[in-house]
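User:
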Amino acid sequence: MPHDADDPREMAAFHDLLPALARGLDVREIFRHLSDVASRIVPHDEATLLLQKPDGHFEMFASTGASREIVCVNDPAHRVNTDAPKLLDSIPGPERGLRSGLTVPLQINDEFLGVLAVFSQRPNAYTERDLANGVRVASYLALAVSHQRLAEMARDAMLDRERAASIETSVELLRTIADVLDVRGVFPRISEISNKILAHDAMSMVFLDGNGKVAHEAATEGMPRLAAHAAQGPQPDHFIVRDLASEDFPFVIVGESPREKLLTAGFRSLIAVNTRARDQLMGVAFVSKRAHAFSEADVLVARRIVDHIALAVSHEQLAEAARQVADAQARAERLEARVRMLADELDSKTHARVVGDSAEWKDVLKKAAQVAATDTTVLLTGESGTGKEVVARFIHRASGRKTGALVALNCAALPEQLLESELFGYERGAFTGAQQSKPGQIEVAAGGVLFLDEVSEMSLGAQAKFLRVLQEREFQRLGGTRVIKANIRVVAATNRDLRKAVDRGDFREDLYYRLQVFDIQIPPLRERPDDILPLSEAFLQEIGKSFGRPPAGLTRDAREALLVHDWPGNVRELRNALERAAILAEGGLIHPQHLSLQGRSKSTVTQVTSDLGTVERETIARVLRETRWNKSKAAKRLGLSRTQLYVRLRKYGLEEPPPLQN
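Assistant: Predicted structure:
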């Protein structure tokens, strides 16, 4: 039924609408009461107020209905012209029971604010008169919304002024965290200061390294630990969860949801800021027990606080990096000083010269000094004559066993049975000629170091027995039954590739791994030319003392000859060459002709090595033929042990005699 233009009921309702609007600054809080008053002007069963955001989309600002669905605006099938009044003959969502409605724009001074929509459960419930009254109601609401926005702007401006003043007064306190070396230690104080400019009930921060692992974390009292949950995907530079009861984090989190943890602890909203502190990703969260405690207006302040924390973390990281560099440099200096001291001590007490200036040789000595302080088994590998025994003596002198003996045993210099008797000792009557018991080298080295040179030449039987020494630290003499404890440290040396010997079946794999606990590779002399001249000077001093007439020195040409030579015999060859040259020079300067190094330069070493191998193979083959392949006789004629001969037979493929020719 149409209404009269001067319907007193409508006029009274409009008069009541103004006091209703004055009841509060927040239209959302009084919207249901406004709806009740407005229903006397435009009857309705549900009312909705939509406001337009800066991006053009609409948000549900207030509604008397239970649904949060934005109808009539975002639904493509029922889209309306939002800047003009409109009657609606059908409403989407029939389950809500709404059959008709109208929409009117909210405008003030030609500025579009949003849309007021009212709905009825009756079809065709509204007329043009209702539409006109709706426009009048919307003008009242527009004034209230505009008033609310002005009040919020004034409040925000006041808060900004308060925060700016508070930041100025608190900035010095915040900067004090840059002077600590562990920001976690002052974290409660950080939260206390931050609360003056960004109110919160708890605060947490997490630091992740380059691999996404938690480097360290901190939290105030009552804040549940969240660091165990790894976030996947790109992380926003900041995010706000206005109500944890209905919103989740804006990224995927692996594991138990931190949202549930926070709700259980009584928290309802949070604001978080992510940034980087040098090489770490840092996230700081401010958490409140109130819903809607934070807004976008708080981001700037939160970021300022986080920037201060990032400054402290960067300071901490720089200080830690500087400390690590200083510690490493100090350790290196202490190690170098110890190497020099041990080298001088070894030279003065054992006459084993530890001479060399090359980086390669210094690296060998550093490793030797590092392992010397332990009782670890050491394997020295390198060509013959590179100085493996010198390094073994260096390790012994630098170890806690330096007061004990260093007993050296060359495994290649003894036949198999003699090697075992020398190594383990024997009891009287153990074999023919054993007239009395004799301790082995393991017993002699008790409390000290046993140096096994050319360990690759040890027979398989001796290897099995020696493996027990390394595993159980005990052994038995040959022919004995008494178990003897082996209180030794083992340093082994070889000029062969033990890994290949294991593959061939010549060396036990379990013994190989027992020996190779700490492997030191000693480079050949040709790979460390910086050591040639220092070694030459040291050797000439030694030779001069033994001759009683030291040579006058090396000519420039002699020095050049030493530097270009390849030294297949390494340091041992160098010393022998200098000793020969000193004899020939008769106290004068050593010239290149005294060194006898012609045809042995680095460019010809491959050919020389090949020729030497050919000569050795032909010699062994000839002796075998002459002894009718009696290997014991052949070894005796060649001046080799049976073990040494067998190694060379395998090397040159001479294990079996060639087949007879028809």
